[in-house]
Protein 1
Amino acid sequence: MSQLREDRLASFFPDGKTVIVPIDHGHAIPVPGMEDPGGLIEALNPFADGYVVCLGMGLAFADQLEGKAVCLRTDFYKPDSKAGAFGVYGAEEALQMGASAMMNMCFPNHENEENIIRDCARVISDGMDAELPVIVEALPYGLGRSQDYTVEHIGFAVRMAAELGADVVKTSFPTDASVDEFKAIVDACFVPVVVLGGAAMGDDEALLTMVSNAMQAGAAGIAVGRNVWQHPEPPKIAKALQAVVHEGAAVEQAMKNF
């Protein structure tokens, strides 16, 4: 990996770990809680290492994002869509926006798997040419299919993304998995793994416990969006997540933020 590419990737991991806040949902689903993106970013900046954005938000809120690691979502995705996800941007737009990385969905075993994987490969190749790292969001069958997020399916999706050439793999903590089961997945992946938050849980302790378990299993961090910006107090939950990820705080200790 070139020094430039390595530096761009390292910007998301200030101490080898990361708290990323995806705010790229506006193209796919209704997004109550993100009516004021600029104000939200400013409120979260003390606790977030980086953000995932679509091109429009990245351009519109460049001032608020300045000094943070920013990842451009290169595809659009639709829940329950037969397409699953489809590529729309690449390295040219990422560089114009000032991004340090790109992100693309990968849905192994989706009915449109072939095209989705080709899109991922194109973005990874594009990133190699432009010295931009790529985070692949690997989820079996599609978005939000928790019944399919088994240890076996997540394990395959994570390794598949790494084999495609992802610099980082973003995935879900497998449904009902133990710390040891997820650790085996992380250990078998030769690039960093970050864990997503999924739909807003409405349960701070459950969220922090999942994140704590992921970190104990060797995850390199988290990419939690809706569970932050749809929280009644986004900065407080972001601070609690930062404590678990970067300080190794116990759940009970992190809960003292509330």
Note: The mean pLDDT is 95.
Protein 2
Amino acid sequence: MPEIQAAVAIIIFLITYVVIIAEKMHRTVIAMLGAIVMILVGIIGQEAAVKVVDFNTLGLLIGMMTIVGIIRPTGVFEYLAVKAAKLARGEPLTLLVLLAVITAVLSAFLDNVTTVLLIVPVTFSLTRTLGVSPLPFLMAEVFSSNIGGTATLIGDPPNIMIGSAVGLTFNDFVWNLAPVIIVVEIATLIAFRWLYRQGLRADPAVKAEIMALDELAAIKDPVLLRKSLLVLALTILGFVLHGRLQLESATVALTGAFILLALTSEEPAKALAAVEWPVLFFFTGLFIVVGGLERVGVIRWVAEESMHLTGGNLVPMTFLILWLSAVASGFVDNIPLVATMIPLIKALGQIGNLDLMPLWWSLSLGACLGGNGTIIGASANVIVAGLAEKNGLVITFKEFMKVAFPLMLLSVAICHLYLWWRYL
């Protein structure tokens, strides 16, 4: 009976993942259907299914999405883009670097999906004015969103999931990952400048037009902006201190969101419309599908096999997780990948008495940066491709991968050296 249950759970899991990868059905629908089937066939009961859902991850996402939804109409993101263009004096290559840096910084404190949704439309406007191809800018912004998001607890969904599952704080992520992420971002921007140095040139008259833009005109609601920035700053401070305050990150994010709602008298229905509910249900479905695997012992079996493969040695285990998660994230969305890896790493700790911290950092770095490898590797990539298509620019899988995969391997190689130097 246990063997039959394990086989059924594996079949449900594989079908769910194959359909997600094939994109023949919306990933939220298939994840929830997979979860429901797990319950219907008795792999996991409804009460147990609710317990395996990580509500801290969901609450953190809801809070931050609500805050960003209230901030968006103020025009602050358009202001930042125009300001960057003027600081670059209309030079396309310099502007590419500045927009990429802005994207990386914003992605560290907002989630990277929200960041690209805000930056990309402005990028198209600026590149049209300059008369240059938007493709290099979009590629740099995709990379920077995933790189910047890796540096903090709240920047990328995989980190939110890891932090919640392990009890890691905002400061833990910054202290352990920000140093290598800065190096990776610099190396990536140097590569982009070299790759596109010939094709990005603007006419002097166009540069003058850029310099004539008034960035302050982008600010549509200064009062709302002041209130929003104050609450956002306090929320980020809350993330920094949440370990000492013994508060979960979801509590901090939701507190910030509802304080901002109270200060702005924003209609809750309008503010909550900014929440990406399909993403939240996608997470919920995955938590239950993976919880079913864990319940019938599949995760523990895989952990035991991994221990045999690496001889229980921390060094090869760390690098195996780094490279496996990086390459896999290029072809499978990193959210379901991390949902599967978290209980696996926990099981490794129970079996082998290992120091798990290097494994958690290798999973974060591999999953977040590996998502840069292909156009389907991370949610931000898919969103940018969709926005590009709406603006008449089709980015093919092959075209994206030709540039992205080698740069992704470079970033993971830098992380390999960093992990070896700092933890092993």
Note: DSSP finds 21 helices and no strands in the chain.
